[in-house]
Amino acid sequence: MRTWFWTLLLAVVAVALAVVLRSHTGNVIFLVSPWRIELSLTLFVLLVLGGFVALYVALRVLSWLLAIPDRMRVWRGHRAQARDHDLLERGWTQLLEGRYGQAEKDLTKLLGQTRVSSRRVLAALSAARAAHGLGEFARRDRLLDAAREHADGNTGLQEAIATVAADQLLDQGRAQDALAVLTPLQEGGARHLHTLRLLLRAESALNHHDRVFTLARGLMRRNALSKVEAESLIDRAGAARLRAAAASGTEAWRSVWKDFKSDERVLPEIALAGAMAFESAGEPEEAARILETAIPLHFTPSLIDAYARCDADQVPRRLAKAEAWLQKRPTNVDLLTSLGMLCLNGQLWGQAEHYLQRSVQMRNDARTHALLGSLYDRLDRSQDAVRHWRLATTATMALPVLAGDLALPPADTNADPAHLDAEGEYSAYPPEFIPVSAPVEVLPTSAPADYVLDPDARAIEREAIAALEPDPPAVAPARGDIDIEEYFDSAPIPVPADDAPRADYGTPLSGTAGTFESEKRNDDKSHLPSDKQG
Known about the structure:
Layout: H1 2-23, E1 27-32, E2 35-40, H2 41-66, H3 68-97, H4 100-113, H5 117-134, H6 137-150, H7 155-172, H8 175-187, H9 193-205, H10 209-221, H11 227-247, H12 252-259, H13 262-265, H14 268-280, H15 284-294, H16 301-308, H17 315-328, H18 333-345, H19 349-362, H20 366-378, H21 382-394, H22 456-468, H23 517-521
Antiparallel strand pairs: 1-2
Helix pairs in contact: 3-4, 3-5, 4-5, 5-6, 5-7, 7-8, 7-9, 8-9, 9-10, 10-11, 11-12, 11-14, 14-15, 15-16, 16-18, 17-18, 18-19, 19-20, 20-21
């Protein structure tokens, strides 16, 4: 629009000037001794305009000629900038692809050739990240020092170097050093989200629960942290704060509890720590109320177990609540076990047995077996109590080895179909977990040998066998000579009778049908205890 306006204005001026010159036919006389120059007014005006144009063009050409060195410098600068950008782009592409070696090479070359300080800082930081990816931490630290040197006086670049260094130190596991790098930024008022996230990582690694609690709250409020992650951090840090205050022996934990928001008090660990604090302070009703609020939202085994631990006077209320939860979760094993504990605390033996039996049918748990053992012990049902205590042991420990393996190598229980755990499922246990107990007596020939829990029982048995045998027994072949494809059961070798034949390895052993009898035992489980048959 402006171009059209000035063109129209110039045309108007030209037309007006032509009209004026046409109506005034005057002359212009120049007296330059000894010359006298006389021109018409129209020609004079045209000469003036032509001279102005010629002078303008001459000055422009002269300016262009004088600006050639500056243009050359600018051209060289643009060419160097293009090379720098090409190296930076290629280095960052390789860095993102994970080719750290080539990326570090290109970025180090950029650091050495560029003349722009900000570009040097960027190249040094990128090369430090590549060296960090290669595990060259000493070279990474030198590159970070170079970046600090070139960023001297630039606050923004210094903050960028600090955040990059802190991130890499945290990846290396040096949380204390990362916190030392980030502390000046925090004191300087830096509130960038990335800086706050790095601070949260460092404080969390150092178990500074107060700082973690504050930072997680702030980041969740600014939507810079997912709700699940923030609640997990708040839960863990808040519970640690509450336990530390309660352990001090003062009432400081109450102020910590009041500092929690309502949605924070129902988080699992905070609710558990709060319930324990109120329980220790002699306020079981408040502890029960906290757990009753938290359990429907976070149905965790720790909360349910804590709810079941109470005095007898609290049992009716808690039992009613727990049975209401059971109606919604009838197959929850932890809830069934907790109901059994509540019934035990309230001396409701029949209900306790009912819930615990339902729980143990769903999951073979040592704790549930132990509770059943305690229940039957109180009911003077000693055999059932011993049975469940034994099952509680076998649920978490190894079954003992069998006595009498004088000639045979130890059986491979990993494939033994007769090796049962407490539920009747096949299992195998490493020998280092074999429990130790009192030695047992050597059984007569007609009775099968029982489990031996004491390693000394083997020596006793050997002495008994040696006393019964007049001749020395045949030497068993080395374990390496035995065909491992031939499977032997782990059943014990009975003590031979005086008149039983003795044979070398490969002939039937004394006392019974020998080794080959063990192959029958894999199909016949009558040799198992009564609670494991079937």
